[in-house]
Amino acid sequence: MRMRAFAGTAVAAAAISMVGVGSANADAVNPNDYMIGDTVYFNTGPAQCSIKSDGTTGCDIASGIAKWLNMIPVTDLAIDVPFLPAHPTFGVFGPYGRSDANTLPQGNGYGSTISYAGATCSGGGRGAIQCNSKGHSFNFGWSGTTTT
After folding, report:
1. What's the chain's average pLDDT?
2. Residue 12: partners with Cβ closer than 8 Å, 6 or more residues away
3. How confident is the model over 70-126, as pLDDT tens digits?
4. What gap in Å lies between CA 51 and CA 54, rounded to an integer?
5. 7-21 mean pLDDT
6. 6, 11, 26, 30 - which has most CB atoms within 10 Å?
7. In this structure, are residues 106 and 116 in contact, taking their beta carbons and an 8 Å threshold?
8. How many Cβ atoms are within 10 Å of 55's Cβ, its own excluded?
9. Higher pLDDT residue, 9 or 122?
10. What is the DSSP letter of 14?
11. Distance (Å) of CA 49 to CA 4, 13, 106
């Protein structure tokens, strides 16, 4: 009897993992709605961000929001080459965002996700922005800043 209960539980768990259950995830948006030329531009919370056609991703950040290595205030973060972790550029390469870009919707309270050219960014909910591209990531918001 115990073996049947174990087997039944295992089958139910496998079925749930294959089918999925509802979760509080960010809503996906169509990158074409944010495209200017061959670059996706979007604004979210305290940041103006972009994803270029080669997957280069960056955000201009309102002053005081992000601290690189949890101590150096920065006004931008970028993922621009695969051999470096996400890092600030200190404005050397110009702005990443555009003030006239569309804002990501709040969605279900967790913000929205936008994917383009192998990069994915999410933001607009709960004060955090996260981007992944070229094997690296950054996030910043109320709970701090991390780069990998």
Report:
1. 82
2. none
3. 899 999 999 999 999 999 999 999 999 999 999 998 876 678 999 999 999 999 766
4. 8
5. 32
6. 26
7. no
8. 16
9. 122
10. H
11. 53, 39, 16
Tokens of residue 25, six digits: 């995830």
Measured CA to CA, the distance from residue 4 to residue 6 in angstroms comes to: 5
The length of the chain is 148
- Show the tokens assigned to 116: 């383009």
CA angle 140, 118, 100 (to 5 degrees): 60
Q: Tell me which amino acid residue 79 is.
A: I
- Output Rg (C-alpha) for the chain, integer angstroms: 18
- Residues with Cβ < 8 Å from 60, sequence gap 6 or more? 47, 48, 49, 75, 76, 95, 96, 97
102 token code pair: 């569309």
Residue written as tokens 């005081």? 64
Tell me 96's DSSP state. S
Q: Which two tokens stand for residue 143?
A: 């709970």
Amino acid at 42: F
Burial class (CB in 10 A: 0-12, 13-18, 19+), 127: middle
Mean pLDDT of 46-55: 96
